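Example record for the data management plan.
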Amino acid sequence: MGCVIGTGLKAQTITGRLSEMPGQRIRLEGFAGFKTYTILETQTDSIGQFMLTFGRADHGMAYLLAEDEKPLLIILNEENVEISGQTLGRPESIKVLHGEENQVFERFAQEHPKREQALSAWRYLERLYTQDPVFTPQLDSRAVIDREMKRISQEDHDFIDRLPADSYTRWYLPVRRLVGSTSSLAQHQVEEIPAALAAFRRLNYAANRLYKSGLYKESLENHFWLIENSGRSIDSVFLEMQRSIDSLLPGLSAHEERFNQVVDFLFDLLERHSLFAASEYLAISVLNQNRCTLNGDLARQLETYRAMKKGNIAPDIIFGDHIRLPLDRQNDQTTIQVQPKRLSEVKAKYYAVAFGASWCPKCRSELPELLGAYSKWKSHGLEVIYISLDDRKEDFEKFTIDWPFSSYCD
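Corresponding structural encoding:
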């Protein structure tokens, strides 16, 4: 086993003995934004002992994984770490023998779930004693429940407040709790959502401590999920998303690579959730900034929103000689001579551009409605142009053969 460390860089070690894991591969996996990477691998000896080395560039959270891929979360910092136990697959069997910050993290990991379970039980009783007429008269009991809930919640805060101001654990634990609380907030604690959103907006995605935390992706997902599921009107949801986007981008402006990574991920997230108003706001905000250069593929994606922004001139579509006329005009030479070569040449008071394809089930169900309305629309000066996304000429022609308006496929 071994590792090459650059000259002048101090390395730390993780050593341990896992009594039920002799002769097994052990891997140390670090976090880098949306990805993980292998820091080092080794193999335990005949009694389960191992040693792994890491450097300053790896500082943050990491996973220890064995061949069964069951992870043990640990903190990588300036301290050496020593653990002892049976197997990584049973975290309750693992003890941190050396490494003060990891010992603190281990203690919190043991105590916090018990407090959460107790709080969950007290919240159930709180709802019972405030909503059920059988129990609502019991004011003394309600006071006891409220007092105990506050006491349990305060224990977590006190635990964290006692940690050194510069410790990674003191920063990490509240962020981890914030990220993991969104579902509960949306269902049972809606009054706490504004404070949670404010905490999300304070996160700095250019900072190494977040980039190396393993919470990079989840914090973005849960932040925008919480807004989407906060019970607000759709207009209010988009307003909150705009506020979050505005809080997110400035902190990234000094780190171009991470700026591109976060924008790319968030844009895809909003698109997948059909949050197109937020996608448009993100795209235009990013394109209008001049602090970071966008990578080519991302810039092209975002430009589609700027080009199609409400109020802009629509992009022209070049038909050439390939526009397909309705049957009743295909042999009319006068009609053929004035047939438009591009979308901007369509002679009509209004026109609608319909995109579709023969293989699209939704198109097949909706196009009959368009066909039925066409004659009425045309009498009011509206022309329809159908743009096909078919990739086989015969499919396009068969699909559009009886249509009363012009169609085009490249």
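Summary line stored alongside the record: Residues 1-8 have pLDDT under 50 and may be disordered.
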